[in-house]
Design goal:
The chain has 297 residues and is mainly alpha-helical. The chain has one domain. The chain has 14 helices and three strands. The chain has helices at residues 3-15, 26-43, 52-66, 76-91, 124-127, 133-148, 151-157, 165-180, 185-200, 210-226, 232-242, 251-257, 261-279, 286-293; strands at 101-105, 112-115, 119-123. The chain has a three-stranded mixed sheet. A hairpin with a 3-residue loop joins strand 2 and strand 3 (119-123). Helix 1 (3-15) packs across helix 3.
Length: 297
């Protein structure tokens, strides 16, 4: 499936409410991040704020690059179900107008990924380990929170970040436009191309700052509760992740790109334990989850 075709499938899923992912070399990712940061420092304007349109364009490029490395899971019913849950969660947020799209990638890794602009992908390996819809909602709400807080963009713009090369592409494009008298679509195309490069070079999977992960956990719990789910769903997922060992199938990626689950649980306990009790009577929706996901396990 081509990059464009895969993106078209995701877009279709939003309207109706390849080889497996390689194990990334984290050391190489960090080294590439250093090189990209150096380019960004030389180019300047690393802290320029992205417009919503630029954010979406960059995210589309990242999604295209990502879907060149993995394929979507073939179960259309599962795709529609996950997309429906994700879009309901996103509708409860202050950025509901983004072109939110959710999908399941056909991969045994235990992880989920959010792209700037509202594309969220969760691995089938993670879905198989979930027990109910509130747990799925917790995972998706965590990724939605990254988009709401523009965490990936902050990492891209950081002088120590993994994607400063995207700024270089945008600056070059803007200079070309000023010389040619072009239009903004050139910037969008360059940002999309930069997004593909971020994935191709392994930079997109560099770990986010621990503070960002803790913030996404906290906001994810709030989004889940606001959407009517038992917010303990995310806690249950983190408890499951805390039991993983590096040698467990599919565990290496999430263990290398996130703070430890026990640390994340401790942070949530300090900040939202009382709130979890208050909303703990909200539904987990075990049966509905089993009906949508049981055939793919």
């Amino acid at each position: 499936m081509s990059h464009r075709a895969a993106l078209a499938v995701l877009a279709t899923m939003a309207l109706v409410a390849r080889p497996a992912l390689a194990q990334w070399d984290v050391g190489r990712i960090l080294e590439l991040g250093k090189k990209a940061a150096e380019i960004g420092r030389q180019a300047g304007e690393a802290n320029r704020e992205y417009s919503a349109e630029e954010e979406i364009s960059l995210g589309e490029g990242i999604a295209a690059g990502f879907l060149g490395a993995v394929r979507l899971h073939p179960d259309e019913r599962l795709q529609r179900y996950v997309n429906r849950v994700g879009r309901w969660l996103a509708s409860q947020t202050e950025r509901s107008e983004l072109p939110w799209t959710f999908g399941v990638i056909d991969n045994d890794a235990i992880n989920a990924f959010a792209m700037p602009g509202g594309t969220v992908l969760v691995s089938h390996g993670l879905v198989r380990r979930l027990g109910n819809e509130s747990e799925l909602a917790g995972v998706l709400a965590h990724e939605i929170a990254h988009v709401l807080q523009r965490h990936q963009l902050a990492a891209i713009q950081s002088a120590a970040g993994w994607g400063a090369a995207a700024n270089v592409t945008r600056i070059v494009a803007e200079e070309q436009i000023s010389r040619r008298g072009g239009v903004a679509v050139d910037v969008k195309a360059s940002l999309a191309s930069a997004g593909v490069d971020l994935v191709r070079d392994g930079l997109f999977l560099r770990p986010l700052d621990r503070r960002m992960e803790h913030e996404a956990d906290l906001l994810g719990v709030i989004i889940s509760a606001r959407a009517g789910y038992d917010p303990n769903g995310l806690v249950a997922v983190l408890s499951m992740l805390a039991q993983l060992k590096p040698e467990d199938a599919g565990a290496s990626l999430t263990l290398s790109t996130h703070p430890s689950a026990s640390e994340r649980l401790a942070e949530l306990e300090k900040t939202v334990s009382a709130a979890l009790e208050r909303y703990g009577a909200q539904p987990r929706l075990d049966a509905r989850f089993r009906g949508a996901a049981s055939d793919t396990r």
